[in-house]
Amino acid sequence: MLRDLRRRDQLHLEGQLGKLWRWAVAGTLKNCTLSGNSASGGGGAFECTLYNCTLMGNSASYGGGAYGGTLNNCTLTGNSAGSDGGGASYSTLNNCIVYFNSANNGANYSADEYGNYDCVLNYCCTTPLPVPQAWQEPFVGNISEDPQLASASHISTTSPCRGPAAPRTRRARTLTERAGAGLHPSVVMNTMLER
Known about the structure:
The structure is a single chain. This protein is mainly β. The chain has a domain at 2-126. The chain is built from three helices and 19 strands.
């Protein structure tokens, strides 16, 4: 597991098995910033579990920010995909901000040409609001308002992302209490108060 890492412009992945590629596949990252990277799938992260991470300015054919992983309390902005999922593709996102990404299909999260989504989003701030496919469980707690980012990983004091959202775990409640009652769990985590 990697913590507090800042990975920027370090490697053009395209299937290479460099030092960073080995940990960026199916690894766990906490409190990391992944920016300015590119790959054919998952420009920032590929099949990883991420906690409290910022993915910005990454690019890929599929999943500009992330592909095939689980993202918790993360912010994905300014990522791009040539095909699907500028922010994320084939991923599960919980308490995340997924906004201001671009792609031919599904700017923030992947969708095919028929509008079918292959990401699961719960308690996220994204647009458009995701609609589950018939075989998926209902998505809950998502909002589509502009998150009013003050920086790539911080929201402004007037952000609609503030306020109660997902049921909080014991750890999230502790962090919320540190930051002030009433903050959305993703806000608390994205401000990286865990450090």
